[in-house]
């Protein structure tokens, strides 16, 4: 990882921003929970969202134009940075330990580098065209991301708004969880059996996560996205949730 970060200035800066935000949320002040205004993505911006965005902007603005869920476009540049300064905001506000950050740098040939973190646990995932690693913000330890050979559950983001697909999974007795943070769920795609996402996928929500899933089986049908690490699960899930569609 020393070599990876030494060569990748963007990931080094993004990791520094995450460590700064991680330190803040360990003993959060009431200000972080205060509603401020409606953000560019349509959701209400709270103190934590704005503070996290400001920290990221300070660390990353020299790398390109930032497209953020909170403020929309920040700065300018040839490259584009897709930023969700707090993935899983409702989880943070509810003190449910599944929330973090998501950031990706895109150049002319696609995504070059990405980082996703879980600010509740300190875990992070970083990827560029040379390596895909996971580590801990607290200690700086890391290891390569390796697929789980025998996962027992999947993740279905936005299942609470699903009718048809959730019912089909229930009928087939397929186990899944609904943790409520899109990017973090995608970062776990190599650990779980599958990822299902229903509805519109906004760039700042998924650019980093989909980059980390590019080696996995993927299928998009209407408003449903299916991602699996194992071919057998992928074929079975497609058959169950799509039926004759």
Summarize the structure.
The chain is of the alpha+beta class.
Descriptive notes:
The protein has 245 residues and is α+β, with helices and mostly antiparallel strands. It has two domains: 2-144, 2-Layer Sandwich (Fructose-1,6-Bisphosphatase, Chain A, domain 1), CATH 3.30.540.10; 154-242, 3-Layer(aba) Sandwich (D-Maltodextrin-Binding Protein, domain 2), CATH 3.40.190. Helices cover 32% and strands 30% of the residues. The protein contains eight helices and 15 strands. It has helices spanning 2-7, 9-26, 47-60, 89-93, 164-171, 182-187, 203-212, 231-242; strands at 35-38, 44-46, 65-68, 72-74, 80-87, 100-107, 110-118, 123-128, 132-136, 142-144, 154-157, 176-177, 194-198, 217-221, 224-228. The strands form three sheets. Strands 4-3-5-6-7-8-9-10 form an eight-stranded mixed sheet, with helices on both faces. Strand 8 (123-128) and strand 9 (132-136) form a beta hairpin. Helix 2 packs antiparallel against helix 3 (47-60). The protein is globular and about 50 Å long. The mean pLDDT is 93.
